[in-house]
Write a structure and sequence with these properties.
Strand order of the largest sheet: 4-5-6-7-8
Structural class: alpha+beta
Largest sheet: 5 strands, antiparallel
Number of helices: 14
Radius of gyration: 33 Å
Length: 469
């Protein structure tokens, strides 16, 4: 008798015999197929587009905002001016013409594309590039996992697996990409472009200790997405057929000499005849018209599609509402709980984007600004850790009932259970900018009131509470 039903080899599990080892070669073959199918669904499936849109608008949104956090120096002097200068340079560098090697995408647009490729392809490459540019020599080059030279077995005695050069610990030391001409079409099969790992940011979701390459995050959902596509197409064909009316001519007697003649003495032929509004036609003697109006409807379409969408969303860690945008069946409590769970998924991906992509890019950016002299910091190289302190503020989001959330934030602040920095960060704002703007508004209000600080100060506390919350 088996201890576990799932470990039994009886009749019910007779055809359930998966591989017991991590087969890298089988995974490599299937990876190409899965990625091609995922890209096909990306191009041709409304449901796949809805999934990608959900991640794009919630993970990237308007982009992560940099907040430089250089602390006070040893003399107690504040570095707000230096922080502001770094943030200003970063915003300027983030423009398409400054950060992208092709000059076509801003940093925000690059982030959006990276998340899309992370979901569809399973991973992406960002290459650090330096060009001849006096102001911003540091650029980014985004490369697809399709570009890896997977047929290279080794390089100078070092192991190369699917285009990734590894050391004895399976740690990437370099990446080999296919070499193409300027058009991007002609491929040099015997040549590759080797880039050191220190110049490449390679991000993928590693779920197994022996895993070296990426797998599309849509792998488990692709069959459901395909089923939904085919089901919708079949329903569409059925509904088009149901909307049609056909007419058949019933003949009482076979056509014979002397029969089937119209009033003009000519036999009426029905070949190629169609129905049109207000038409007047003539039949052969003895013929009659019978109409065929199809009946029936696709009554289970909504429920079946909802089930498919729930399965697809659940496989990606999302709620049905996040993918379908259908809020017809939710209450305040269920919608809020769904938002909380969805935001856990989005924040995890935001943290991945900030830690593994934006932070390495920011550190390289600071080095470039120091080398070009745009950041005049004499002890930058000696105290690099101090000058690289920073945080990322992800795009903000609002709740279903703002009044309840503002009240809760106010109580949390008054009881020291929360901070303005965290509350502002949830809304995608810099708490320092919130305070500066609020102070400017209060000063302006006092000026308009003729300097009546007694009346203004009494209202200031009340006015200050709501925006801080």
């Amino acid at each position: 008798m088996d201890l576990f039903d799932s470990g039994g080899r009886g009749r019910l599990n007779a055809n359930w015999n998966p591989s017991m080892t991590f087969d890298r070669f089988r995974i490599a073959r299937e990876r190409e197929t899965i990625r091609a199918r995922a890209q096909d669904m990306e191009r041709n499936s409304d449901l796949a587009a809805a999934v990608l849109s959900a991640f794009d608008r919630n993970v990237v949104g308007s982009g992560c905002v940099l907040q430089a956090k250089i602390a006070e120096d040893v003399l107690g002097n504040k570095n707000d001016e230096l922080n502001d200068k770094i943030e200003k340079l970063w915003r300027e560098w983030s423009r398409a013409e400054n950060c992208d090697i092709t000059g076509t995408q801003s940093l925000e647009e690059i982030e959006s594309m990276l998340i899309r490729r992370y979901i569809v392809d399973g991973g992406f490459f960002v290459v650090k590039v330096y060009v001849k540019d006096e102001r911003f020599p540091f650029k980014l080059q985004v490369r697809s996992v399709d570009e890896l030279a997977t047929n290279l077995p080794s390089y100078n005695g070092r192991t190369v697996i699917e285009g990734i050069e590894l050391d004895q610990y399976n740690r990437p030391t370099a990446f080999h990409f296919k070499k193409v001409d300027a058009s991007g079409l002609a491929m040099y099969t015997n040549e590759t472009v080797r880039i050191e790992a220190k110049d490449v940011i390679y991000v993928f979701n590693k779920t197994h200790p022996q895993q070296i390459r990426e797998i599309s995050l849509l792998a488990t959902a692709l069959n459901r997405i395909k089923d939904a596509n085919q089901f919708i197409e079949a329903v569409g064909i059925k509904e088009r057929v149901l909307a049609c009316m056909a007419v058949f001519i019933k003949k009482r007697e076979p056509t014979a000499p002397g029969r089937g003649m119209g009033t003009t003495g000519q036999t009426v032929s029905y070949d190629g005849m169609t129905l049109s509004p207000g038409m007047i036609g003539e039949l052969n003697p003895g013929d009659e018209v019978q109409t065929v109006i199809p009946s029936g409807q696709a009554s289970n379409t909504k429920d079946f599609l909802a089930t498919l969408i729930r399965l697809i969303a659940a496989g990606l860690g999302l709620s049905y509402e996040a993918v379908s945008r259908d809020l017809s069946q939710v209450t305040y409590s269920s919608a809020r709980q769904g938002l909380i769970e969805d935001r856990k998924v989005f924040r995890k991906m935001q943290r991945m984007l900030a830690d593994r992509v934006l932070t390495p890019i920011y550190l390289e950016f600071l080095d470039a600004m120091h080398l070009t002299g745009q950041l005049n910091i004499p002890d930058y190289l000696k105290n690099k850790e101090r000058y690289t302190a920073h945080v990322w503020i992800p795009p903000g989001s609002s709740w279903i009932d703002p009044t309840k959330e503002v009240t809760a934030n106010k109580i949390a602040l008054e009881t020291n259970q929360d901070t303005l920095a965290r509350i502002a960060a949830e809304r995608g704002e810099d708490w320092r900018e919130v305070i500066k703007q609020r102070a400017a508004e209060i000063r302006y209000m006092k000026e308009l009131m003729g300097g009546d600080e007694s009346g203004a100060s009494g209202n200031d506390a009340a006015d200050d509470a709501e925006p801080i919350a």
